[in-house]
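Help!! Second protein's tokens look totally different from the first
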Amino acid sequence: MQRTIDTVRSMEKGSLFLASTSHLPQRKMKTLTKGNPIKLILLFAVPLLIGNLFQQLYSLSDTIIVGQTLGVDALAAVGSTGSIQFLIIGFAQGLTAGLSILTAQYFGAGDYQKVRQSFVTSIVITVIVTVLLTIFSLTFVGKILECKHRQKSKMMLKRLSRLFLQAW
């Protein structure tokens, strides 16, 4: 009950945050600005590297499974959707990078309560945008693929006409 009252009070004050974090335990936050730079960079970069390796492993296994079980046409279909997937994931990464700016500013100022609130708000916004992107993607994936293939067909026709004119 007290948590709900705190949330309502923070919203009444015009706070940008959607949830109160006063009920969360206080934890010591790590900083990347103090200490051995090489160790800090490695501690930051290794999880990113591992994540990228798992993503590549997923893509490789997807290609092997589709190629072996469904054939060349299915593999080509999977490959043709890669740029659309990259567009959607790039948008999501850009959004989360933008949301992290406010959190980083509060962290730099040493205001850890606002860091927590900003983090919670970022998670809520990310979940909402994820649901909206999923609905949009599932709704319009056919139209996007049609448009993409139409553009490729037009480009091929232009290239063929140039080759024909050059040869003529």
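Here's the second one for comparison:
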Amino acid sequence: MPEQSVGDRRPTAPLPGRSASPTRLGASQLLLATPASGDSSPVIIDLHCHYAFAALRASSIERFSFEPQVAVRAGQPAHPTEYDSCLSPRLRRRLVWRAARRWLGLPETDRELDQRLGDHYERHLGPAGPVERFVLLAFDAARDERGECPPLPGPGDRFGSDLYTSNSLVRDACRRRADRFLFGASVHPYRPEAVACVEEVFAGGACLLKWMPLHQNIDIRDPRTLGVLRKCAQLGLPLLVHYGPEFSLATQCPQYRSVRPLLEVLRGLRAEGQMPCVIVAHVATPVMPLGDQDSHRALLDALTGEFADAPLYADLAALATWTKAGFLSRLARRQELHHKLLFGSDFPIPPGLARLRWKLGRNYRQIAAVQSWPQQAALAVRCLGFNEIVLHRAAELLPNLRYFDQPATG
């Protein structure tokens, strides 16, 4: 893939500490604080939007060298990389998927389902609001210890990819809507030549790298993983990584659920001067309010203690949902943490505004009337009293923000 010459690949700000002049908006300002023409304030970015289809093959997109178009092998089990985006038969049998399909009225056939999903993305990511840019996330396939990608798992299978979305597909979407979308890459560190793949996606416009170790089978202590982390530090490419319990995809590697090994690895990399920027998704919260909070508490301690002056952050993705709203409310009161938090929605997971109704007060009806789920989540974050740095921090940390504004060269 041709490399472009772009001047803003690395973040323009140094490693941020506390906001020098924190800004909070009152309730009366809430729905008025949307971007205006000529506004010089930092862009508001939703850095956590999933982009997936049921069984999509894109025939006319520019591809990364490590994602060639793969022919379907007749009579053989389907592999995720035969598609540009797919959902596994195992996932489609999970209760969460069946409930979502019924609730959203999604059709059964893949072709109709993919069309409906495309319409769903346009409906929620297109409307104007405080959020101006959305990071669409690729999601690399799970790999075994040898770095091999197994077939798509069916019901009863213990290992495989429930979700796959290629970097090539996401990059193409970002190129077509450069005004709206940013490229969130995903490269499994057990891939052959993973470090070179990371270099390629960064040269191709990636603004972050996404991992989910408990599903993709990623040991943060593996030498191959450490090599990718050092490369991310060298490039200035942040890592968005999931630790803590997971609900939507199968937890097929529970040994990689805890955030504590990540903190140990970052401690060592920091001592070497090779710690990348790391954003822990969902603030490592449990799925349910009474779930295991060990990772959540360990992360909060790290953010305010040992890593207070290091590039370790967390995002608020999915914290506006019904089961996590209590965590969002408590974090709103932790002003000393806000410079370490970034806004994310976890779209297409819908927010559970009714759970926050009494805290949103008179703004509840206005927010609930907004069509876009990510915009609803951003407005809820503002209304709950989060410092504005939560909404603006991503614009300071992410590279390649204007990459797709430039004409391709070479």
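Reply: Different proteins will give different token patterns, so don't panic. The chain has 14 helices and eleven strands.
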